[in-house]
From TrEMBL:
Domain EGF-like: residue ranges: 85-121, 122-157, 159-195
Disulfide bridge map: C111-C120, C147-C156, C185-C194
Protein name listed in UniProt: Uncharacterized protein
Any one GO biological process: heterophilic cell-cell adhesion via plasma membrane cell adhesion molecules
Keyword Cytoplasm among record annotations: no
Gene Ontology molecular functions: calcium ion binding
Record Pfam families: EGF
Record GO cellular component, one term: plasma membrane
Domain CUB: 185-308
Signal peptide range in chain numbering: 1-20
Keywords: Disulfide bond, EGF-like domain, Repeat, Signal
InterPro entries, per the entry: CUB_dom, EGF, EGF-like_Ca-bd_dom, Notch_Cell-Fate_Det, Sperma_CUB_dom_sf
Length: 309
């Protein structure tokens, strides 16, 4: 009877005193009125005297800095599972060199240029389908097509009219070829776009006296150009053998020529300033230099020409 009474009193006046640490075991102490020895919490549990010492986190281990709350592991970003043991990025969910970014509710993928989708699985260049040997260029989450010569359009689907406007200079003719154009140049012109022109005509040995041992005719042909005129400019140092009442000389102005320069319908000799000459549009011009072969040579001439509208 005495033992029963002590058990009842112990069960009635037990006071639960916790340690203050969430994962340390609590302990029980008999109320001070009885001045009995402290009884361990495990002992009380085994006696099934109360439930307040049952901490649900006692037998829970949370990995990767997870925190146990009410027996459940709260996992940090990037981890999951009952014990936070699953590294969500370890499985490498991001494709095509995408970067795995941990989030509170899982992971997201930061994609390389040219890829998109939840896991960077969509290749934007595959969908772009640049045509005619165009090159796909990914940039800032989008793509564009760099077209090969001779093509244009969003996907390089259109053929460029490389001859419109005409890229050929100095009256060259443009011809379309695969991927571009080529120029057919007039005589005395050259280069990819006929940009090089040999537009200077000089007498032999210029600016020294030209030889005049025998009668001789030299001819230069300047091609005509549709819609263009040819303008000739004679250098001021012109000196060709002419005749007047005083005799034969290189230094006179006279319509009577022993040696002469001619283009179009104009004949030039003697010495003096010569105004520019312009020939009709579209016509080829022959430039003549006639020497009479009397052995008298003069400075001669330097002529330049250009195609003009």
């Amino acid at each position: 009877m005495r033992g029963l009474l002590v058990s009842i009193l112990v069960a009635t006046f037990l006071v639960c005193i916790c340690t203050g640490h969430p994962h340390k075991r609590s302990y029980w102490r008999i109320a001070s009125a009885f001045n009995l020895e402290t009884i361990s919490c495990d002992s009380i549990k085994r006696a099934n005297l109360c439930q307040c010492c049952n901490d649900p986190c006692d037998d829970v281990e949370c990995l990767n800095k997870g925190v146990c709350v009410d027996g459940i592991c709260n996992c940090p970003r990037g981890f999951s599972g009952a014990d936070c043991g699953v590294d969500n990025c370890a499985a490498e969910p991001c494709k095509n060199n995408g970067t795995c970014v941990p989030k509170a509710d899982g992971v997201s993928c930061k994609c390389e240029d040219g890829f998109t989708g939840d896991y960077c699985e969509v290749d934007l260049c595959a969908a772009a389908q640049c045509k005619n040997n165009g090159t796909c260029l990914p940039e800032d989450g989008e793509v564009s097509c760099k077209c090969a010569d001779g093509f244009t359009g969003q996907f390089c689907e259109d053929i460029v009219d490389a001859c419109e406007p005409n890229p050929c200079q100095n009256c060259g003719s443009c011809m379309r070829i695969q991927g571009g154009f080529t120029c057919e140049c007039l005589g005395r012109t050259s280069g990819r776009t006929c940009e090089v022109i040999d537009n200077v005509i000089t007498s032999p040995n210029y600016p020294n006296d030209y030889p005049d041992p025998i009668r001789n005719l030299t001819v230069w042909t300047i091609p005509g150009c549709t819609g263009k005129r040819i303008r000739f400019v004679v250098d001021q140092n012109l000196a060709l053998e002419a005749v007047n009442d005083d005799g034969i000389s290189c230094d006179i102005i006279s319509p009577a020529c022993n040696d002469q320069l001619a283009f179009g319908y104009r004949r030039i000799c003697g010495n003096g300033a010569i105004t520019p000459t312009t020939t009709p549009a579209g016509k080829a011009v022959h430039v003549f230099f006639l020497r009479n072969g009397n052995g008298i040579g003069c400075t001669g001439f330097n002529v330049t020409y250009a195609y003009i509208d």
